Structures are given as structure tokens and as C-alpha cells.
Amino acid sequence: MSRAVVRPKSWVMFILLAICLINSAALAQDPARFPKPEFESGYQQPPTQTPPPRSTGREWMDVFVLAVALGLTSYFALKKRSRRAIWAMAVFSVIYFGFIREGCVCAVGSLQNVSAALFLSDYVIPLTVLAFFVIPLIFTLFFGRTFCAAVCPLGAVQDLVMVKPVPVAGWLQEVLGLFRYVYLGFAVLFAATGSAFLICRYDPFVSIFRMGNDFGMMLYSIGFVALSIFVARPYCRFLCPYGVLLGWMSQLSKKHLTITPDSCHVCRLCETSCPMGAIDKPTPEKLPVTREQGIRRLGVLLIFVPVMIAIGGGTFSRLDVFLSKMHPTVSLAEKIDLENRTGTAGTTVETLTFRSSGTPAETLFAEAGIIRKRFRIGGWLLGGFLGLILGVKLIGLSIFRTSTEYEPNRAACFSCGRCFSYCPNEHQRLENIRHY
Amino acid sequence: MNNEKEKLGRREFIKDALRTMTAAVIGGMGGFIGGRAAKNTVWQLDPNKCVQCERCSTHCVLTESAVKCVHAYDVCGYCQLCGGYHRPGAKIQDTAAENQLCPTGAIQRTYVENPYYEYTITEALCNGCGKCVKGCGAFGNGSLYLQVRHDRCLNCNECAIATVCPSGAYQRVPSDRPYILKGQQGQGS
Amino acid sequence: MNDLIQKFNLHEKTVYAVCRTVAVVAAVFSLIICVLLIANYLQTRAIDPLHSQALETLVKRLDQNPGDAALREQIRALHLLSRKAYFVHQWQLRSGGVLLLIGVIVMLAALKIMQNLQRQAPNPEDFPDSNNAWEALEQARNWVVGLSVFILGLAVIFAILSYREMSGAFAESGETETIALNNEPLKFWPNFRGPGGNGVANAEDVPGDGIIDSAHAIVWKVPVPRPGLSSPVVWENHLFLTGGDKHLREVYCFDTASGEILWQRAVGFTADSASLPDLETYPGYASPSVATNGRYVCAIFASGELICFDMTGNEIWTRDLGIPDNHYGHASSLIMYQQMLFVQYDQNSNSKLYALEAATGKTAWEVPRSDISWSSPICVNTENGVQLILANSKTVDAYDPQSGRRLWTLDCMGGEMGPSPAFAGGMVYAANENAAAVAIRLNGSQPEIAWEFDGDLPDTASPLATDRYVFLATSYGLLSCLDAKTGEKLWEAELDYGCYASPVLAGNRVYAMDSGGVLVIFEPGDTYQPVAEISLGEKSDCTPAIVGGRIYVRGKEYLYCIVLNQDGT
Description:
The complex is a heterotrimer. By secondary structure, chain A is mainly α.
């Protein structure tokens, strides 16, 4: 094996390589070990294959498809009032955004990319991901949650497998619905601190679209699909953090899907038509409590909201140690610290790798300390947010809105159009169309 | 009745104002982030940081990992006794199964000329465990190394392997330069 | 429901029946696939084909009998089989997934058609009473309040748990130096009697096992400018000593490779320089050894001057602790743990234990102590966490290095306490002339005396403890070995001179410096097994430092570097 002659060219290459690898002590000495031979048999070195990733063009095409699908669904929900067309859109979205595109990046997940881009200076967000975040919000601001109806592959899957939905009691729906805010808060906190993308990690449907994941996640997915057969859209209603934002947008929306094509006769036929429990009923004329009582309660709650924000913030800021374990740097620092304190070394692959990297533990600890401080602030914000949400929810539950019609609840309605066929006016409308 | 209409009109006005404001906020935020936004990115692992923990082969969301071994022929010494091909302690340097390191037999060894042999990865068989990478790094030039293969990678928003990589080798790279290559190919860019 | 089906027309009935059959078949099919997939997963998890134990065993056997052709064939067959199993498993997972998906889709479609057939016009009379909207709101309010309290409670619990679990080490400051305790393999001897002050060298630092004569063993010897009894302290290539007299105290940094002085710094900032006592005879002004954590090096003198330098000799801070009321002169060495420096400042009155921030010299905490001593603290990892263990002329005490809380105390010493405690195998050992040698078993927070020994006892040399033996070296040259479990004397040996320096252990050898300047090397055991003797040619009362396979010793005037193997290792 020993040969003294080495082509100058390969030496140049080795030097370049050595410079390139200057930071990696493990490999820096390697290139010159066995110089590349000079072949006499005319051997041609094969190229290293580098199959390209999905092109940017295709990413932009997905954005385009998203916009078109949103437009079509809005048209079907608001103008054409066709449940069947919306269903067909849902099938399309599951096939295209789900099984063909295999999930990432979806609008729900893009929420984390946007959080990271807002709070982490070194995180860059691709424009297509930003588009996936913004376009559904804008559409919802004008047409209600038509994105949820049939464009979001997660929502569409649940919509399609919904066979025998059982009604969920009003209070239970309110309480479970609050978990969306909790999930949103934690997802943003972990994304904004660069710890983890919680929403992606616990996405119940992506493993079905990809037909693969680890065993536990597969079981979780199958469980969620099974649940979706009996509980209408459990993820959308009780977990989806993006749905929180869409709900806010929808409350301000310019137009929205209506149950009846003209005016409500309060025939009650649509009352139980919504498996998602998103129909607001007309309220009885008389107030259940006196005006004074109502105002007093409201006053107490209004004072209580800032208190809840303060308590929430104060408590959650003290979760910095606990929550920061989610950050890889902090978790590594804790392991190293534990090893140092117990006089061991290399109990895990992570610590072994860190110790062999030659980085002083001090640097790691300093970094972990900074991240923990960030979690301290993030904890304040998260706790304050949760306090605010719960306070506002309580106020919302104390105000008795008067209404004389059956209307979709703008924040909760997914615009799926299931209620259309329950309205006698709708049948009249279809009849009229048929006659013309 | 008139009063009621007035009320409705006021409500509509407030709503319009709020909607415009929200749209402006979303637009402003989009513009702020968009101003710093970059080209699309893909996941790639830095072979210089890789410690061959074998997690690439088990933690990918795909049943067959998107991470495979690639060979930088430029850096290869075409050795007769290859640390990436032969298991440590192999007495005879041939292609017999008992002398191979690769658990799936994904490396092809072909004779070039005395005493040189070419090593080629059969990607369909490679499971990305990195045993050969470790062997080649320890005894050879380090010409075998792991890379995310973008014909297979789904480009998950959060790469499942990146979350468990002990050396932080995974990073997002621009999609127009999706590989971190060794050898002349790697230098060219 | 059945009434409804009765009302179906023939077409509807047929569709319903077909759908029901399809749904049942698809459900059974999906279930079977599901079970198969799970079984497949569990099986491959139990016997991972690519990490086959059997294959490894066979390959190992082949290495022993390279000629065994049958074995070779067997390996090849098994190798092929395991590869096949691996790829078949992957194929099964993929195709099973597709089949399951198809099964579920068919089942759901059939169920949906059945459901649609059964759809009836709603009858508002069956609807639940809608007039209880206000009660529903009230109920929801209560639940929201309940949920808020639940979330808050959960947060409080996790906050408390996580804060308790965290020792406060790195999160509090973000800047922490970690120092190795006993047995951590790193290249240093950070204070008197090595890592943790326990007299045991790091496993990686054990000197060679050669036996050579004194002339060849000494690699270099260099003069130390001013006298002192402080023992060498080493961090990588830096070796620190102090020296001094009534007029000037000094800190020296030597290069361990050559013995060359890298820097030397004079210390003389005490306000009471005029009233410094005469300690010219014994033990002098520079008895305490320095302590370092690789970033700072701190030194203390009998004048009460405490000073901190960085590794290149820049002064970081100084503190004047005041001239101690000490008739021989302050002699306790310093020790550091993480970012803290500990000063055992025992004297006739106003004794204290200080914990200072190494970076600033500010007091992190201080606790009062009762009696005088010349003994040094040790900082060791016990099963109840890290403890700082000190001895004075009456008691042995342990403190929590983070808070200064006294963890336990035992009244078991006496006389003028010179030797430091030692720790091994869950036991603390302390000994002093005119008192006893005592073994303390750490039963959590209830330590108890395991045994006492009142034979020949050390005056200044600290006991050296291993899991099996305790070694005592007396000032009149009697070296004795006790059984660590029982305190029974196993053997004794007479040295030519007395021992004032503490014996230390490195690997399987004990190194004891006697005051005649002879480094006596022996192997610990049930009998005395001397290995070698290296003579410095001058007197020495300083404890050797053993780092990187070399032994550093301070004699009366010179500093020595000793190796034991012919090739210089």
C-alpha cells in the first residue's frame, strides 16, 4: 500500500479539504491517510449522485393550488351552497395535500415557522411557508372558515370519516375547546424558543398520509381516526391551534356561510343538524337574571381578568426550568451537569458526543442559562395569555346575547354545509332553481 | 326599529374597521417576516459533525430512512482492506459475507487494478446506519458519509431525526444546494 | 331502527344489505391486517434481524477457528437470512399499511352509505329542551373556572418539582466552572491532596509501574525562590506553589514540562504588616496550598491575605481576612467546587468557614465554627450528594457546598487537629495524635461512628482511605494499615524518618513522602509490600501531586518532577 508518488492535483484537493474540515478535529487528519491512486487501467471515477429535492416551482404550485382550493370552497359554501361540492373538495384536499404532498408544510404547522421567524433572529422562513400561513387567514377574514371545511387536509380527513357523530354537551364543548388555546400557547412558546415544533411532532394525521412513523405515533393516529368516526372533528374542535386564529378571523369575516338562503322561520329543523355543535339557537325573550345582577357579575369579572393574567404569568414564569427541558441545549446541559455532579461521564450518546467535541461545559451552561431566561419571559407571556383567554371566556359565558334566528356560530362553524339540507327554505330554493 | 337598524349599522362599521385593522396587522407581519424570508430550505446533515449513532436508520418517519450512505470517490483511497467494507478482525479481505461490515450488504466491492478496489453503495439496500461511515472514518479517509437523499426525504417541517441527533449535525440548507458533499464535488460550489 | 329498515324499498334493502356485508368484511380484514402489523412490529423489535446476536457469536467463533468451512457456510446462510428478514419486514410494513388504509376506506364508505339510508327528517319534538341555555352557560362557567384552577395547580406542582430537582448549579448563574471530584478522569490536581482533597489521583494519571533509581527518576528539579510548606497543585501544564516570609509572600506558576517559572507574583497587601507574628521557624507563612479550577487560582497565607489570579497571573481580586489568632500560623489549604472557593478559617476565636465566589471574591455564605485547626477541607461525592467535610480540634462536620447548611456533626476529635479527613466507600475517616482514628459511616443524615482506633496516630499527615484500607503515617515514622471495615490493624512498617506529608494513592500504589525526603512507594494490601524508594536528597514535608503519570514533589528548597519508567512515562 505504500506509495510515495502523489499527484499534485490531489494534494491541492486534500489541502482544500483540510481547510474545509478545519473545524472538525475528527476528520481533519484523515484525507491524506491513503491518497487516491493514479490508475493505469484508465479507470473512470463514477460521479456521486445527488438527486435534487422538490423544486421551488412545485412549492409555489402548492401555494397556487391552496389559493384556488380556498376560492372554490368559499364559492361552494357561500354562493353555490352545495354540500356535495364541498365534500368533493375535501376528497381532493386529502388526496392532494395529504397523500400526494405528504403533509409538510401545512398551514397549521406554518404557525410555528412564523413564530420562530418572529422571535429567533437566526431562523429564516421560506416565502412559500409564509404564504401557507397568511392565505387561509386572509380568506377567513372575508369568507369564514372555508379553509377548515375542505382545504385543510387534517380537517378534511376528519370530515370524511365522520360516520356516526355523537352530540357533545355544550359545557363540555366549551371546556374542551379551551385546550386549543393551551396548545397554541405552548406551540408558540416552544417554536419561538427554538425548542421544538410541537404541532408537527404530535400531528395525528400526517403519519397516515405518509404511511409511516414510529409505532407509538401510528397507534395515536389510528386512535384519532377511530375517534373521528364518533366525535365530529375532534382535532379541529379541541386541539387545533391554527383554528384559534381562524376563529378570531372568522368572527370578523365580511361574509359567512348561512344556514338558510333567505330568512329564518325558526322552524327548529336545523337545530341538531350540526355535528360540531356550531349552531347558535335563538334565545328566550326574558333575561334569566336582572340587569343589575348581570352588570355586577360583569364588573367583577372585568376586575378579575387582570388578576388572572398576573397569576397566570407569575406561575408560568416559574415553569422555566421545567419547560426549558424541551430545548435540546438545556436538556444536554442538564445531563452534563448531572454527570459532573455524580462524577460520571458519557452516560448518554449526547453527553459523550458533547464531551468529545471539546466545547467547554461552561459555554454550554452559559447558553442554557440564556435559554432558560428566555423561557422565564416566555412563561410570563404564556401564563398571561392563558389567564386572558380564560378570563375573556368567562366574560363571554356571562353575557347573554339575544338572538331571534338560528345562525352558525362564526368562531366555531367550519362552513362544511351539512346544515343546508335541513332548511325548508333551502329546498324551496333548489326547487326554484330546478323550475327555471 | 330604527334604533335597531342604527345599532346594526354601527356594529357593521366596527366590524369593518376591525377587519381592516386585522388585515393590516397580518399584512404588516407578513411583510416584516417576508422581508427576511429566504429561499426554500431542506434538511441535510453535516458529515463533519456526524458521530454515526445509527439513529438516522431508525428515527426517520419513512419506513426506509431517507438517509443513505454516499461515497466521495475523490477522497477514497481504493484500499484493498477497507475499514468501511470489512469488519474489524476480518482475516481475509474478500467479499465473503462473514468479512463484511455492512449489515445489509449494501456495499459493492469491485476490482479496479492491483491493488485497488472500487466501493459502490447500492442505495436500495442501504439503511443509513452509518457503520461503514464509522469504519471508514476510523481507519480510512472518511470517504463514506451519510447524507439525506432528497429523492426520498419528505422535508418534514420538523425532521424527526434532527430532534434526536446527538451532535446537532442536522440543519436546514438552501434547496438549491441541498447536499454537503466531500471531495471535489463539495469544493466546487 | 329496525322499523325504518322495514320501510325500505327493495333497492334500498339490497344496498343496505350489501353495504352491511362489505362493512363487516372490511372491518374484519382491517382488524386482521392491524393485528398482523402489530405482531410484525413486536417480532422485529424482539429479534432485530440486523443486530443478530447469533450471527455475532458465530463470527466470533470463526475468528477463533478461521479454517472452519462449515461454520463459514453457516454464517453466510444466516447473514442472508437476516438481510431477507429485514427487507421482508419493511415490505410487510409498507404493503400492510396500504392494505389497512384500503380496508378502512371501504369500511367507512359502506358505513356512511348505511348511515345515509337511515337518515330521517328531524322531528323538533324529539329535540332536547332548548330553554335551559342560561343553565348551560352557568355550567360551562363553573367548568371553565375548574379548568383554570386545574391548570394553575398543575403549573404550580411542576414549578415546585422542577425547582427542587434542579440543584441550582447552572441555571442560577449561567456561568459555572465544574471541578472534578474524586475519581473523575481529567488532568489535574486542583488543590491540596488532589481531586476533592481526598488524596487519590485520577485513574488516568497513574504513573508508570517501573522501578528506577533516584538519579534517573528525577526529570527536573528547580529551586523555589521562597520557602513554604504548600504542596504542588497542577492544572494541565501549570503547577502552583506559594512561598514567603514575614516580609513578602509570593505565588509561583511553574511549567510542568520544564520546571521553568512562568510567572511569580508578590503578595503583601495586608494592613497589619507591622504586627505580623514571627512564624519564621515552623510552619511559616506559606503552609496552605492553593486551589484552582482551571480558570482562577486562589492562594492564602498565614497573614490572612487571600488572593486570586487567572491562569496567566493577572490579579483578579484580593481579600484581607485579618491576621488569624493562631499560635502556629494558619495552615488550612483552600479548595474549590464549581464556582465557589472555600476557606476553612479556624482559629482560637472567631473561626469561620467562608464560601466565596471564585470570580469576584464576594462572600456567598459564611458560617461560624467553634475550634481551631490546621486541617484542610475535603469536598466529596457521597450518596447524599456533594459534601464539604471539615475537621477541627473537637468535631468532624459536613456542610452543603451550595448553601452552607451544616449537614451533620460528630464530636469525636481532640488535640491540635492537623490531619484532614478522608472519604472512601461511604465512610469518612479522621485521625489525630492525642485523640483517635475514627471511621464515620454516613447513614444519610444520621452518621455514626463505625470504629475507633487508638494506636499510633498521625500528627499532621492526613489518613489515606480506600474501600479496604486506611493508612496512617505518624510523625515518628510508623506507617500503619488498618482494615477499613473494622479498624483492626493489619500491619505496620517503620520508616527511616517521620511523616509530616500526607500519603496519596494513584492506581495500585501508595506514595508516602517522609521528612527525610524519601518517597516511599508501596502497594496497598494485607501485608506491607514496598515497591521502591526515591530519595530527593533533601528534606521534604510536602504532599506529592500526581498528574499525567508524573509525580511533583516539593522539597525544602527545590521542586522535583519524578517519573518511574525508563522511557520517561
